[in-house]
Design goal:
The chain folds into two domains: 13-25 and 91-190, HAD superfamily/HAD-like (Rossmann fold), CATH 3.40.50.1000; 26-88. It is built from seven helices and seven strands. It has helices at 26-40, 57-63, 69-82, 94-103, 117-126, 150-157, 172-180, and strands at residues 13-16, 23-24, 91-92, 108-112, 135-137, 165-169, 188-190. It has a five-stranded parallel beta sheet, sandwiched between helices. It has a two-stranded antiparallel sheet with strand order 2-3. α5 (117-126) links the parallel β4 (108-112) and β5 (135-137). α1 packs across α3 (69-82).
């Protein structure tokens, strides 16, 4: 963490992001994509893991630009099915895990992730963490296909005051969302 641990009080609510914050999932995600691509297409050059960038749908289109929409969708679907085979490649972030384990006994701890529900639960269950959370919030897309601010959604759904929320997050756009949701920058612990 790049900030010292906050003085967490009993009435503080702790929001934890999952991918890249609580659990390092990038390599498992990459392997899932790589295996999915290989099951449909023979590539001339092997795709390499970049530890500084999460392989995602845009990365897939860049790595294999000539995919038909059907091939693209099949690869995405196969990637989702492959993920369970690579759970052993996920790693817990010990400093965040220690906070979760300590404060899950005294405070409301909430998973607030843009990960899809089935993959998030699979990952949490694999690491025996599901029961450490009071509430779980997963990726939500609006009716018009727009990304929803996960922090605003969680605060609203739980009828919380943003001033009581402490966030553990690793992605800059998500940190900005937390700030837009009314969470003080001093209550955001980033990595």
């Amino acid at each position: 963490m790049n900030k010292p641990l906050l003085n967490i009080k009993e009435n503080d609510i702790l929001f934890f992001d999952m991918d890249g914050t609580l659990v390092e999932t990038d390599f498992a995600n990459f392997l899932s994509y790589k295996n999915a691509i290989q099951s449909f297409i023979k590539l001339e050059k092997e795709i390499e893991f970049n530890p500084n960038e999460r392989f995602n749908r845009a990365s897939l289109k860049n790595a294999v630009p000539n995919l038909t929409e059907t091939e693209y969708e099949k690869i995405i679907q196969q990637k989702e099915e492959n993920y369970k085979e690579h759970l052993s490649e996920t790693k817990l972030n010990k400093s965040v895990l220690d906070v979760l384990l300590k404060y899950s006994k005294t405070n409301k701890t909430v998973l607030v992730t843009n990960c899809r529900e089935d993959r998030a639960l699979m990952t949490l269950n694999y690491h025996n963490l599901t029961d450490k959370f009071s509430n779980l919030f997963f990726k939500t897309i609006s009716d018009n296909g727009q990304r929803i601010n996960k922090y605003k959604k969680a605060i609203s759904s739980l009828s919380l005051s943003a001033q009581t929320v402490i966030v553990f997050e690793n992605e800059k756009p998500e940190i900005e969302d937390a700030i837009h949701a009314g969470i003080s920058i001093d209550n955001i612990i980033s990595f």
